[in-house]
Acyl-CoA thioester hydrolase
Amino acid sequence: MYADVIIDVPFHDVDSMDVVWHGHYLKYFEIARCALLDQFQYNYVDMKQSGYAWPVIESYVRYAHGIVFQQQIRVRASLKEWENRLKIEYQIFDAQSGKRLTKGFSSQVAVDMLSREMCFQSPKVLMDRLNAWPAFQAAQGE
């Protein structure tokens, strides 16, 4: 249960040493996370329409190898937890060699938009979307 995206590192993402500034790694994670959410039709617009916001409450990045200007990278977002929160793990690879460059994760919780209260369980709408996703169904059958 994952999504991959390919990104060509643009000049405006690098510092004076042509290495990606550390904060942009989270942006790359977000791009892959959106691709993953789209796969089970529960992206940020869908979340809002269902009455829930899903703020990021935790994120982590392990910078193993620098990413440089014009490098083509593959970012993978994998769904790891969903019952009480959305925990998504990320890996960034060099698109040509396959070498892993970075890894990390993020956690999001549902917040009821009317009451502004955090939910201690993921809302039913998330489970409905996941259960309709063929990749989720296949993984549950393993």
The first strand starts at residue 2 and ends at 8. Strands lie at 2-8, 52-53, 56-63, 72-81, 86-94, 100-108, 111-112. The chain has one domain: 2-141.
